[in-house]
Amino acid sequence: MTQKPVIFIDGEAGTTGLEIRERLSALPVTLFSIDPARRKDPVARKDAMAAADLVVLCLPDDASREAVDMAATLGDATPRLLDASTAFRTDPTWVYGFPELAKGQDRAIASALRVSNPGCYPTGAIALLRPLIDAGVLDARYPVCINAVSGYTGGGRSMIEAHEREGGPAFELYGLSLEHKHVPEIHQHAGLARRPVFVPSVGHFARGMIVSIPLHLDDLQGHITGSDLHTILQDHYAGQEHVRVMPHEPKLSAEALAGSDRMELRVHATAQTRQALLSARLDNLGKGASGAALQNISLMLSLNDA
């Protein structure tokens, strides 16, 4: 009987860590845990890393960097790493964990020693933009503006507690310095040559997300129609289990995919004014976090082949 791969989640007490741990219990893996009282003990953490085939880092950025340095001291016992923070998403020595990004990305993840799990907002934005840039219809220097709304669970424990205790604001824009930490990730992995404007927001609902990007069709390459954009996206994601290109709908609810690992992409366009809106709908904790992590873990450990 083949031995099950061992996974250690460093930071399993956080929102993403808890979800990943719960979902891994149904997979053919062995979860290595340390005493909660020692979860910040460097000796206990290092021993857990040495015992694991794969370490999933669910930590703040600086703590993730420290954990990676710790793992690097293990020599031949150094495990493979999947990092859920922002710390390494634009690092060229790490593989970006969006399997549907481009042809061969899933194979790159499967063979990588270090994989960075994508952010929730970037997952939607990159999914919409990258195929259009690769197809040559959206110039990399197009002035891209991205609007997005997320459920409050994306804000971590303090925001969750505030919304569930106090009711929270119905809707709130944030990141209005235009320096949100996800912008470099979108900029790089969408293939943009010009920094996008990104305006995130949070609503008083637990899970769900919509990312939307307006376009002027006359500013694209060639006499492109909304139907053409739909076809480009459909061709790019053909056969993908987790990303689906859907028909236009007149209204979208951000909560519709809560609890799902799927992402839905749409093109909403009008021929009269030659305008279009691209939309991505996903669960911020599903395809935007733990669902993506499960997808990457399965690739890295060949669980789908077991």
Automatic annotation (TrEMBL):
Reaction equation(s) it catalyzes: N-acetyl-L-glutamate 5-semialdehyde + phosphate + NADP(+) = N-acetyl-L-glutamyl 5-phosphate + NADPH + H(+)
Gene3D superfamilies attached here? Dihydrodipicolinate Reductase, domain 2, NAD(P)-binding Rossmann-like Domain
Annotated InterPro entries: AGPR, AGPR_AS, AGPR_dimerisation_dom, AGPR_type-2, NAD(P)-bd_dom_sf, Semialdehyde_DH_NAD-bd
Enzyme category, top tier: oxidoreductase
The organism's place on the tree of life at top rank: Bacteria
Instruction: Write out the entry's keywords from A to Z.
Output: Amino-acid biosynthesis, Arginine biosynthesis, Cytoplasm, NADP, Oxidoreductase
Name the principal localization, coarsely classed: cytoplasm
Q: EC annotation?
A: 1.2.1.38
The entry's localization annotation reads: Cytoplasm
Q: In which pathway does it act?
A: Amino-acid biosynthesis; L-arginine biosynthesis; N(2)-acetyl-L-ornithine from L-glutamate: step 3/4
Query: Family assignment?
Result: Belongs to the NAGSA dehydrogenase family. Type 2 subfamily.
Alphabetical list of PANTHER family matching this protein: N-ACETYL-GAMMA-GLUTAMYL-PHOSPHATE REDUCTASE, CHLOROPLASTIC-RELATED, N-ACETYL-GAMMA-GLUTAMYL-PHOSPHATE REDUCTASE, CHLOROPLASTIC-RELATED-RELATED
The protein in question is named N-acetyl-gamma-glutamyl-phosphate reductase
Q: Which organism is it from?
A: Acetobacter lambici
Gene name per UniProt = argC
